[in-house]
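Fold sample X.
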Amino acid sequence: MEQADSFRHKGLRKKLIDSIRSKGIINEDVLEAMGRVPRHLFMDSSFVNFSYTDKAFPIAAGQTISQPYTVAFQTDLLEVKKHLKVLEVGTGSGYQTAVLLELGARVYTIERQRQLFLDAQKTLGPLNYKPIYFYGDGYEGLSAYQPFDRILITAAAPEIPQLLLNQLAVGGILVVPEGDKFGQKMIRMVRETEDHFQRSEHGHFSFVPLLRGKNQ
């Protein structure tokens, strides 16, 4: 894995951000945050040369690093602001985690795949990103640390886990791809009161499934 963030990488990253902007993402805070994250350092060495193409790629444990446009889209829907308390369900490579941290969020991130849980720390630590890591079942969330201002789920759930909705603060936002391998929609849930959520749908996407339990 390349450890440097060279002028070449920064130039390629700028082109990627320009491409995402051209596809309709106009939240400059999100684009600037992504422009600061060296995506090539989160990629498997065999895919490093493709780091700044707008595509998803395989990572360890049969998972993927999301397409940059998808990361931007989810992050934009989440409306992240400085100092907000964010639960990320599915650390994966840690790339999305880094983007949330660049936006000034306090990030609690949970990963069920032990290999990814460990690998993400090895990647994020040297880059001075400091989320709070948990190895556990994303379906359960982190009830001991609730409520969260924002919850981002980075895998497709057949239905939105009620436990995660319960952990969202009033006024908070949860973003999740909902569906199965045959079709998924990006869903945003805004908790308007203790008992009422406003649901909206935001297009079709493709994610790996959200699985229960921990995987050694």
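Fold sample Y, listed below.
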Amino acid sequence: MPVSDTNPDLALYIHWPFCRQKCPYCDFNSHVRTTHDSAEFGTALCLEMSYMAKMLADRRALTSIFFGGGTPSLMPPAVIGKIIAHAEKIFGFAPTIEITAEANPTSVEAKIMTEFYHAGVNRVSMGVQSLDNDILKFLGREHDVAEALSALDTVRHSFDNLSIDLIYATAGQTLNDWQNTLSQALAFDLPHLSLYQLTIEPGTVFYTRQRNGETLNLDDDHAADLFELTQHITAAAGLPAYEISNHGKPTAQCQHNMNYWRAGDWIGIGPGAHGRFTIAADEYKNLQRVGTATRRSPAGWLQSVQKTGHGIDNRTHDGADAFAAEMIMMGLRLTTGVSIQQIETICGPRGEWLDDAAVTQAIEDGWLDRNQSNDSGMVTDLRATDAGRLRLNHIIAMILR
């Protein structure tokens, strides 16, 4: 599809697929491997980055880099440094670039994060997941609460920009249980928290256990109660939600994820990575927005990169309606919502992708808010209410044509 000539932010996602063990709730592309050559994979990541850069319509400075996984904190710091240096050489860096690495809160990985800092990482997202030992055991985590707290203390010596992940709405968890955990987390005075309800994803160990009759998470009504409690407590503590599951001080919102939710451009490299960005291909008269997905198998991806320079397994071209749907789906996750006029500028008339009657119904139901700023009374800005964020998938299906 033709896209506007504006230049959105450009982000880079690097997927490191290796873990020491697979968590039973995890549906990410992660593999338990101990025999891979980290330096070889680092070289391949740089090769694929160079290939993807050549596809871009324009070479913009990166505003963010995100090392995800898998378990990126298992990467050798020298490999992290090599990838960051290569990215700076290929793209250049925006003055305020955010470079995030996910990390597990084990003592070994916490010590390595100091070396990550010297390699160029300036933000850490730590997968604490719970401050209750019984829940940590249930979630299959390697660490206990004491080790997590020790790791957090170690990492804070190097990083001011630090976030922790917590999972809630596990089976049997009460409002009081979750309030105590949240209070303990907020006492750390961190600038950012990612707070996720436990969902049971197909292909996971938890999915199999659930199909066999186990109850692993709370029902929707009780989970909603915990969600509402979360909004109240975090807002009162100065870390309001800026997205469904993310809470932070205004200066600590994750730039990389904000780029996703605003439907910006990002390149994804590594096994099973996804990207969406603007290209200028000879066979098209206009700029085109494409989606890329690389091979999921680490060995297959590595072989492909070494042979052809990339591991792209699937490449799609977005139509205007697909891009509009992406901007609606992602933008409504944000508490600020979306600009319908901006989407029209990029994707064409709203009537081709938005059902205004359904929008009006969702507003009457109390699920969406709008700000009418033009004479026609058409929706110019749209955001989900607190009640709407609990049923966002239903609302999106309802309002998109």
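Sample Y note: Confidence is low (pLDDT under 50) at residues 1-5.
Also: The CA atoms of residues 241 and 247 lie 4 Å apart.
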